[in-house]
Amino acid sequence: METASASSYHLPPETQLIDYFTDLGLGRSLLLLGAPGAGKTISLLALAKTLLHQAETTAEAPMPVVLNLSNWNL
Questions:
Q1: To 10 degrees, the CA torsion angle through 47, 52, 53, 58?
Q2: What is the rounded distance in angstroms from the CA atom of residue 54 to the CA atom of residue 50?
Q3: What confidence tens digit (pLDDT) does each residue in 34-51 have?
Q4: Can you say whether the dihedral through the CA atoms of 68, 64, 24, 16 is positive or negative?
Q5: Is 58 within 8 Å of 46 (Cβ atoms)?
Q6: What are phi and psi of 22, to 5 degrees?
Q7: What is the DSSP code (8-state) at residue 32?
Q8: Residue 17: which of 3, 4, 30 has the closest Cα?
């Protein structure tokens, strides 16, 4: 995983992605990098599902948005 400082950081196996994402704080963003089949899409969808649940149950929680950039014609 690359952080804003362009350093590589690997989460310990027991770390939940939502916990790391929450620790990033307000205005957070996360870039998932990895080889094909590494689980990036599954991780992203699991994170979005958790964030969606938070948005549905907490009025102050932001609504997650997932965009498939590979389909964009830029």
A1: 120
A2: 6
A3: 899 989 899 999 999 999
A4: negative
A5: no
A6: -65, -40
A7: -
A8: 30
